[in-house]
Amino acid sequence: MKKFFSRYERQINRLLEILPGFISWNLILFPFWGSFIFPEVVAYYILVFDIYWVYQSAFLGITSLMAHYQIEAAKVMDWLGEVKLFPDWKKVHHVIIVVTYKEPLHILQRTLRAIAAQDFPLKQITVVLAMEKKEDEKERAAKVKALKKEFGQKFGHLLVTVHELKPGEVAGKGSNENYAGREAKRYLVDELGYKIDYLTVTSCDADHCYHPKHFSCLTYKFLDDPQRYLKFWQPAIMFYNNFWRLPAATRVTNTFGTVWNMALIVRTDRLINCQNYSASLKLIDEVGYWDPHVIPEDYRIFFKAFFAKEGRVEVDPIPLPLWVDAAESESFGKTLKNQYEQYKRWAWGASDDPYIIKQFLTQKTVSFSTKIFRVFQVIKDHFLWPVNWFVITLGFNIPILLNPEFSKTALGHTLPRLSSIILTAATLFLGVIIWVSAKQRPPRPKEVSRWRAALVPLEFILMPVVGFFFNALPGIDAHTRLMLGKYLEYRVTEKV
């Protein structure tokens, strides 16, 4: 198998790039052409999707509620006190790579202030400002000067790396992080003699704000885990930094994204590190750091480690919030555009599927049951990303409208009512989602009126519309681009 893949690598890779778009488009279009040929099959296809959606809603409601209580318990936990029970806790050193490109100074200051507010000893933390050479040199130098003035003496080390894009690399977080991680290891381990066995490395975006107990919790989990060199650690990512400034349309979609991220920390069997995560530097070094030639670096580094370590790599949750910026801009229209572009970039994660599928088929050291579960979950989520909205929202009307004769049958007559009953069941969990969101989001600022805050739950009636523009459409856009070989260029989300 490996010889075959090696011989026809380019052709196979291209075929696998076509696969997500091919499948998603066919699943979307099936109800339209299938309604003329076998409407009964289409009806059952729609009902299966409806039932699946109820399951997903129940999963989201129940697990997000469980996650909420886990997070609240973790907030009051004395993680540092628990850490100090380990005799070697002072040997642990955290490397935080803050990847930045043209980020405003105040955004970087906010992130570093959140790191400086940790209850964990700051001298056991190294911050790496991972910058890009293509950024204007004067602007970059001004930001470095200001940040060193404020934070230069607060951490164990404040390093600055400047990444220059090389042939074969793509602009993005992965290539920058690959360079910064190697430079941090060279400086801390090779030059200063830090023990790599006690070093963690954290991937951090420029707008991420940590809970004050984050690195105490991470230290505890690191020291307490005998499999620490086979683990990633993932907090609950919440798009709440600018929650009250967002228009209703994007506030709704980011609320759902937040609740979904919360829910995943309960389901460790499905949890894969994304956006902000930590691992032992030893693991990252052994698997060869982040791949500089791909845009989606988070899932890629997980599966790179997963297959390199024979399927033994897992993700352990840090049950604390990690607050990030939702897409925003200076105007309503630009905010919507930024939100769309951000979701399109996330949907571009399907570009990892060729790599994952090839590893699945060729990697014989991982048991079939282990890899099939991990791979199936990812492939399913990627392939169905743009499909769900079309089938759930439009599905039951299509066979009735396109094939009037089918509407006269028993199945055709009952399909809309049956589908409606099933989907109504899904809305029962919406109340749980709204409640969890209200408990975790930041308090209402003074400039936001009480009546406006009270109307926030009513914004969820926009879900059918925002689900199309910020989920289905960017998803099918990304899939189609990948299918046609129109590769996406990395675009930094604008910060306000």
What report would you give on this structure?
Helix 3 packs across helix 9 (248-264) and helix 3 runs parallel beside helix 19. Strand 2 (125-132), helix 6 (137-151) and strand 3 form a beta-alpha-beta unit. 58% of the residues lie in helices and 11% in strands. It is built from 21 helices and eight strands. The longest helix is centred in the first third of the chain and has 38 residues, at 39-76. The chain has a domain at 79-341: Spore Coat Polysaccharide Biosynthesis Protein SpsA, Chain A, CATH 3.90.550.10. It is globular. An eight-stranded mixed sheet has the order 3-2-1-4-7-6-8-5, with helices on both faces. It has helices spanning 2-7, 9-37, 39-76, 79-83, 105-116, 137-151, 173-191, 214-224, 248-264, 281-286, 297-308, 332-347, 353-362, 368-384, 387-394, 398-402, 404-407, 410-427, 430-440, 450-454, 463-484, and strands spanning 93-99, 125-132, 157-163, 199-205, 209-210, 231-238, 277-280, 314-323. With 496 residues, it is α/β, with parallel strands linked by helices.
